[in-house]
Each structure stands twice: as structure tokens, then as C-alpha cells.
Specification:
The complex is a heterodimer. By secondary structure, chain A is mostly helical. Chain A is built from eight helices and no strands. The longest helix of chain A is centred in the first third of the chain and has 23 residues. Chain B is built from seven helices and six strands. In chain B, the strands form two sheets. In chain B, strands 3, 4, 5 and 6 form a four-stranded mixed β-sheet that branches. Chain B has a two-stranded antiparallel sheet with strand order 1-2. Chain B is elongated and about 80 Å long. The chains are: A mainly alpha, B alpha+beta. The interface between A and B is large, with 54 and 54 residues.
Chain lengths: ~180, ~220
Amino acid sequence: MTASSDDPALVRRAKDGDLDAFDALVQRHTAGVYRIALRMLADRDDAEDITQDVFLQAWRSLGAFRAESAFKTWVFRIAVNRCLNRLQRQRPTEPLDQDIASTVDDPQRVVETRAGLRAVGRALAQLPPEQRAALVLREFEGCAYAEIADILNVSLPAVKGRLLRARVAVIEALRAWT
Amino acid sequence: MNTTRPDHRLPCGAELGALLEQIADGGAQKRSPHQRGCRYCTVALDDAERYWQSVRDVAATPVEIPLDLVASIMRKIRRLIQAGWITVTRAADGTTKVAAWVVAAIAELAAERSAGVHRVGTGWGRLADRLGEAVSPYDGEQTPSGSAVYEVADQTTTVELDVVARYGPPIPFIADQLRRNIISDVRRLTTLDIDAVHIHVRDIVAHEQSDDQHL
């Protein structure tokens, strides 16, 4: 996770037209935005397109960004909204398979983990998009509950409710498939 | 614990949802005295713990970020800034200008509703996979811009965009239709006349084919 403590200073400079400052913001938050899009859409090309769109929109809208929330929260919100829009127009998401061979050494564990990863991908793909967004932000981006509420623009109880339903559904799906 | 209802209660009165939250938020080690003594809670927590490990594995797996992504975002922004503002009407009571990227956005929207266009963008991630390369097959400045860019230079105004075509109609036919849509939409919305629309068909996919299964 990258330090984003001096994001506000970079945002102020970027608002004055400092492209290097915006470049620094893009470098910090590209990975997070791309991961969210990848896990929401399960497609690398779509994730790449969305990531580009998110930062282009952020640059265009920078003047309107009031810094009431963190820059990261703001771009994550743009990212989630873009993903939800695209999902509305699309067929159901096909699951994402991720390869873990490079991060796990024990062959037996690789096989088990790979099956688990595939199952998680399938479980994610079948969640309603709003629940998927909450789960992705919480479990994969490590966002706090309040931050998720801010990103999704819903109440804290609503976030908890979505996470709860998503977690139950994921566990039930994993139980069925592994 | 074979139920999908989050408000389901175990025989001991513990709420399933609360136990899941405990596991997911990492409190699995900190079981309460009741939970340590209760066989229902123990079974439910152990069960959830076992399945949730897969989610943690996914969370711990690094995601490969396309190498060129940051550079390509910044390249696009620079091009948009260079293209600047375009005056669409000038009158005694004021002028109307649109940013160049408004024209680019109109072109993208036109492309999205054009038959035969699968998507706007490069699709190079999939192309790289097909070529078995970890990096973009394009290098440096040749890297395509992705979505539409509007430029005014040497008295001509051009739109440039990358698309992935749908398998079926002849590609020149798809491109001509897309070109007409872009020119007419931009004219209708801004009154601007575009001299040229450069279309780069970067890839093609079958209509029914799921192009998502390359990970």
C-alpha cells in the first residue's frame, strides 16, 4: 500500500495545472483502481480501459473536486461507478482465474490454492455488483467500513449489510465448489 | 451452518453473520470465552475459517499491473491538454468553447453504439497474452492512445481512436460506419467539422466468444 499522506498537497498542485503532481497521484493510485476494476469486471482489457478512463475523468473533474474526501476515495468512487455502469450494459461477469504459481512454493499447496482461487473468482462473479463492490473494497483493498460507505455513497449499516450478504454467499459458494 | 441466511442463529444464540465478520476481519484468533466453550460456535468458526482462507489467498496474490498503464494515462492527458479548447461559436454576446476532450468523448460514445465495434480501446492486454509476452507489443511512443483523441494541427482537425472489432462484417465497412457516426455526432453536438477520423482496428473478437478467459 502506498503512502498517500501528502496527496492533498499533490492535488493542490495538480489543480494549478502541475502535470508532474498529477503524474505522482496516478502512480500512487493506478494499482488500486486497476485491481478494483479487474475484480469487478474479471477482464484485463476492461480493467485497463476503466483505469485510463478513471484518471482522465479525474483530471477533467479536478477543478470540481472539493477535497471533502481523500483523493483515493474519490478515484475509487469513480472507478466503482464506472464498473457498475459497464456491468449494467454487459452480460453476466465470467469468473476471473488468477495464477498463483509464482507466489506459492509447495506443489500440493499450489494445487489446493489454485482451486480455491478459481472458486473465489466464480463466487465473486455471481455476486450482485453492489455486493461485489463492497467485498472487493473490503477484502482486497483493505478499505475501512466508513471509507467504503464514502466510496459507495451509502450508509454504514448498508455497507455492513452488503458485506454480510456477500460473505455468506461467498462461503456458501466455496463450500459447494471446493 | 448450512444456510444462506446471514441473520441465522446458531442453537447457542450466536448470529452467523457476526461470526463471519469476526473471521473476515481477522479476529479468528480472538475467540470469546463463550465461543471457546461452545461447540456450535467452534464448528461454525472453524468452518468459516477454512473457506475464508481462499479469499485471503486471493487478497495476498499480487495483481500484475500493465507496465505501460501510468505512462499511457499521462500520454493521453498530455495530448488532451495540448489539443486545448475549440471555439464553436463566436458572437457579440459571447463565445462558446468546448475542450478538445469533449470531442474525443463524443467520438467514444459514437463508437460504443456503432455496430461492429466490440469496444473502444487497444485490447493490448489480450494481444500480449496471445503473443505470449508480458509486455505491450508496442514500444515507447508507438504505443496506441487507447480511446479517442482529438487534435487540431496544420488547420485540420482529426479524431483518432483504437477499437476492437466484432467478427463478421468487413472491417472497412465497420470503420466507414463508425467514421460517419463520429462525424455526424460531433457536427450535431458541436457544429464542428472533422477533416479526418483515423480508426485503428487493434483486434477482432467473435460475437459470442467470451474474450475474458485469458487470465
